């Protein structure tokens, strides 16, 4: 495993690295000081080797986000080497846009870019979205710039009377990839086709901006949203998973006087002192994708690396299909 930090910055700096064998890069990863770890596809052996190295560096990981098999392999290895518990938080599906197919009929109204005068409405809807997906984040005028929502370009779908009824956001195009997130319609406006219409608007805009791949994540358990995006032309690429890590509780120990005390947590002692969990602890549908702790209020690279993770997942699936065709 290689990482990009200098010795002077190995306590609090982000870890960006790769897994290599015989001089060939086999996978990449990133870990932010206040967040979890994101991984490109790795074999169980590679995931295990990475867990050993990160545990040796004293990393404290609140969660892992990766394709289903990689996440499971790393979670199993991290439990063993870091002495923590692991539980699936959410299962996701990564989609890539094929042929964009607008809904028929298109609901009445139009899409328009969100402007500065829409800030209060935008923040309100982002708060409601975060609550819906159980994302613990404070969104107001004072915190907005530091949230993952601030770097996106948003579109509202408006009714014929000019009333916003739905919104969608999209990340800037990086490395040829744009991610649609979030998509939100207030409960009182749902069931009228607005989410599909506004998703088409931002997807088309991302393509016009030069995106080679437009991607989004859905909660695998939400059959409604999965069916909607497939009707719009989004194609399933891979299953995704987020595992949360928890430290075991101290076990009570009896004393000679009959009282009970707690024994220090040996698993925790094996880890270096860890920062508090990130304020935006994802319980959603990136990753989050990109909803998985990717925002940094001062540096843009977390989103870039996350999109690179998406790109690697897309490439990995394409390679698998190609090999399958050749062997058949």
Helical content (DSSP H or I, runs of 4+): 25-40%
Number of strands: 14
- The SS-based structural class is alpha+beta
What is the H-and-E element order? EEEEHEHEEHEEEHEHEEEHH
Amino-to-carboxy terminus distance: 35 Å
The CATH architecture name reads 3-Layer(aba) Sandwich
**Overall number of domains:** 1
Largest sheet: 12 strands, mixed
InterPro entries: Acyl_CoA_acyltransferase (IPR016181), GNAT_dom (IPR000182)
Pfam families: Acetyltransf_1 (PF00583)
GO molecular function: acyltransferase activity, transferring groups other than amino-acyl groups
Protein name: N-acetyltransferase domain-containing protein
Features:
two-stranded antiparallel sheet, Aminopeptidase, 7 helices, single chain, N-acetyltransferase domain-containing protein, GNAT_dom, Acyl_CoA_acyltransferase, 328 residues, alpha+beta, disordered N terminus, twelve-stranded mixed sheet
Model description:
This protein is α+β, with helices and mostly antiparallel strands. The chain has one domain (2-327): Gcn5-related N-acetyltransferase (GNAT) (Aminopeptidase, 3-Layer(aba) Sandwich). The protein contains 7 helices and 14 strands. The protein has helices at 44-56, 68-82, 119-132, 194-208, 223-231, 266-269, 301-327, and strands at 2-3, 15-21, 24-31, 37-39, 63-67, 85-97, 110-113, 153-158, 164-170, 177-184, 213-219, 234-246, 252-254, 260-262. The strands form 2 sheets. Strands 1-2-3-4-5-12-6-11-10-9-8-7 form a 12-stranded mixed β-sheet, sandwiched between helices. The chain has a two-stranded antiparallel sheet with strand order 13-14. β4, α1 (44-56) and β5 form a beta-alpha-beta unit. α1 (44-56) packs across α2 (68-82). It is globular, with a radius of gyration of 21 Å. Residues 2-11, 262-305 and 322-328 have low confidence and may be disordered. Residues 109-252 form the N-acetyltransferase domain. Residues 263-273 have a biased composition (Basic and acidic residues). One of its GO terms (molecular function) is acyltransferase activity, transferring groups other than amino-acyl groups. InterPro entries: Acyl_CoA_acyltransferase, GNAT_dom. Residues 246-298 are annotated as: Disordered.
